[in-house]
Specification:
Its cofactor is Zn(2+). Belongs to the zinc-containing alcohol dehydrogenase family. It is a single chain. The protein is an alpha/beta fold. The protein folds into two domains: about 1-150 and about 290-340, Alpha-Beta Complex (Quinone Oxidoreductase, Chain A, domain 1), CATH 3.90.180; about 155-285, NAD(P)-binding Rossmann-like Domain (Rossmann fold), CATH 3.40.50.720. The protein has helices at about 40-45, 95, 125-130, 140-145, 150-160, 175-185, 200-205, 220-225, 240-250, 275-280, 295-305, 320-330; strands spanning about 1-5, 15, 30-35, 60-70, 80-85, 120-125, 130-135, 170, 190-195, 210-215, 230-235, 250-260, 280-285, 310-315, 335-340. The strands form three sheets. Strands 3, 4, 5, 6, 7, 14 and 15 form a seven-stranded mixed β-sheet that branches. Strands 10-9-8-11-12-13 form a six-stranded parallel β-sheet, with helices on both faces.
């Protein structure tokens, strides 16, 4: 099969012919119809993730068709169109037993612990726990966005932050995760302020339901627009400055949700713990979403209140994967970029 292959961290990836994957007894192989280009893929390419070993194929947001099934798989067959969370859970650990597969202690992750979906084929573990059937007619390019950025934003807004109608929500970063968070919070009846240095990203955030879009003087401006601070503030980027700005943008007893990865290579944020204590702030983490939660997200998409298809602003062939990875750091393209093997 063809795949985007990383042979040196930070070096130029190449399009290469590599061996086709085979399914584990509990897994499947999926023919990739579309795969999103995510900031997490950029981190993997740069060597910021200890799980990644070389040579490596990135990619963890995907949609496609099952083409091979392991002997122990019971619920899936060849020909089914599917997507999957980026956390492929084991299904048997205490966290999985409690329904929290997104923090499975034995998780694997395509594009991190193993080869991912910047390829014509990808192997996925524990299919009976992790696969999500795509509704008939659901476009591959939009389905690919569900596996990481959209699902992560959905759970961060609806479950972790528990956003309520009328609350002020600040979203720091208007990339794929941030735009999803903006649209989902707006659909929940929140009043959203988006923060991003890119004018194109800010324009998209306004189109997705933000009341205001901010570029500079972030903390002061957000606090002014939200009449004393946001009820909920989400760092959808994962930089020290965005994390700190998010916490400082909150009103008393507000909720900060950290979604951006904050790798050590980027430096550690100066979280103002004095404010956390004095203002009784909540500092929360959010890490993806389990497969069994996807029906709620698919219902939201089907309702028309969340314009998922509008998130995908660029579709490229697989051979454009190296260029698309390099562009992530500069945020040169607003919205979500999808590769189409």
């Amino acid at each position: 099969m063809r795949a985007v292959l990383v042979t040196e961290f930070g070096g130029t990836p190449v399009l290469a012919d590599v061996e086709d994957p085979a399914p584990a007894p509990h897994g499947v192989v999926v023919a990739v119809e579309a795969t999103g280009v995510c900031r997490s893929d950029w981190h993997a390419w740069q060597g910021h993730d200890d799980d990644v070993t070389l040579p490596h194929v990135p990619g963890h947001e995907l949609a496609g068709t099952v083409v091979a099934v392991g002997a122990d798989v019971r619920n899936w067959s060849v020909g089914r169109r599917v997507t999957t969370p980026f956390v492929t859970a084991c299904g048997v650990c205490p966290e999985c037993a409690a329904g929290a597969q997104q923090v499975c202690r034995n998780q694997t992750q395509p594009g991190f612990t193993g080869w991912g979906s910047f390829a014509e084929l990808v192997a996925l573990d524990h299919a009976d726990v992790n696969l999500v059937a795509l509704p008939e007619g659901f476009a591959a390019s939009t389905a690919a966005a569900l596996g990481c950025r959209v699902a992560t934003a959905f759970r961060a807004v609806t479950d972790v932050a528990a956003v309520k109608p009328g609350e002020f929500v600040a979203v720091h970063g208007a990339g794929g995760v941030g735009l999803s968070a903006v649209a989902i919070a707006a659909a929940a009846g929140a009043r959203v302020v988006a923060v991003d240095p890119s004018e194109a990203a800010r324009d998209l955030a306004l189109a997705f339901g933000a009341e205001h879009a901010v570029a500079t003087d972030v903390v002061e401006t957000v606090r002014e627009l939200t009449r004393g601070g946001a009820h909920v503030s989400i760092d959808a980027v994962g930089l020290p400055v965005t994390c700190e700005n998010s916490v400082r943008s909150l009103r008393r007893r507000g909720r900060h949700v950290q979604v951006g990865l904050l790798p050590a290579a980027a430096g550690r944020p100066a979280v103002p713990m004095d404010l956390v204590i004095a203002h009784e702030l909540q500092v929360l983490g959010s890490h993806g979403m389990a497969a069994h939660d996807y029906p709620r997200l698919l219902d939201l998409v089907g309702s028309g209140r969340f314009p998922l298809a509008d998130l995908v602003t660029r579709e490229l062939p697989l051979e454009a994967g190296p260029r698309a990875l390099a562009e992530v750091a500069d945020a040169t393209t607003a919205g979500i970029t999808v590769l189409r093997p």
